[in-house]
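A.,

Following up on our hallway conversation. Structure tokens first:
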């Protein structure tokens, strides 16, 4: 995990997880799109929190942030 401001690194993961739950609850994400988003979340979370190097942790954080932005845009567009 990134050692610089650890609580801030959780914001992207919490945002992504809560958006996934909300979009799945309202049936905005179903089937393959939901599976893709959950897979993306799990891979990004693994890289972010269990990555062997700081670069892998930063890549996981970037993936979580991109996922959160994509889910927010999807929610606002529908």
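Then the amino acids I'd put at each of the 78 positions:
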């Amino acid at each position: 995990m990134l050692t610089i401001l650890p609580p801030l690194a959780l914001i992207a993961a919490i945002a992504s997880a809560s958006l996934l739950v909300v979009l799945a609850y309202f049936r905005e994400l179903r089937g393959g799109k939901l599976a893709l988003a959950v897979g993306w979340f799990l891979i990004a979370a693994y890289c972010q929190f269990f990555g062997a190097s700081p670069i892998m942790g930063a890549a996981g954080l970037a993936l979580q942030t991109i996922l959160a932005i994509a889910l927010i845009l999807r929610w606002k567009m529908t």
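The radius of gyration is 13 Å. Curious whether your intuition agrees with the design.

B.
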